[in-house]
Amino acid sequence: MRLDKWLWQARFVKSRSLAAALVSGGHLRVNGQPVSKPAHAIGPGDVLTLPLPGRVRVIRVLDLGLRRGPAHEARALYADLDATAPPPECAAPLE
Questions:
Q1: 65 close to 9: Cβ distance less than 8 angstroms
Q2: Cα–Cα distance between 41 and 21 in angstroms, integer?
Q3: Enclosing H/E stretch for 22
Q4: How many CB atoms sit inside 10 A of residue 48's CB?
Q5: Model pTM score
Q6: For the RNA-binding S4 domain, which residue ranges apply (predicted)?
Q7: What are phi and psi of 28, to 5 degrees?
């Protein structure tokens, strides 16, 4: 699948054109290699390093989506490998 399309389906960006611009900027890496073409092919098992506002995300592609679905469906497309990010269930402090 095209990298820009997958980023859009996984809800990392709001539009395909924003995804293409993110990739074209040359700051995104696939398996440690810089990528600058939005049409770069990715598949399950690939590791993406992408700069987003406020932090750099490191994720592993788990699946290729068929559509841009709801957030819970998009979350199933990747695993977050960033050790500093708290898991979603631990985001709020327990009392």
A1: yes
A2: 16
A3: helix 16-24
A4: 22
A5: 0.82
A6: 1-63
A7: -90, 145
Alpha carbon distance 13, 4 (integer Å): 9
Residue type, 92: A
Name the 3-class secondary structure at 53.
coil
User: What is the full per-residue pLDDT of the chain (95 aa) written as tens digits?
Assistant: 999 999 999 999 999 999 999 999 988 999 999 999 999 999 999 999 998 888 899 999 999 989 999 999 999 999 999 765 554 454 444 44
- CA gap 14, 85 in Å, rounded: 22
Q: Which helix (H) or strand (E) holds 78?
A: strand 78-80
Distance CA 46, CA 3 (A): 11
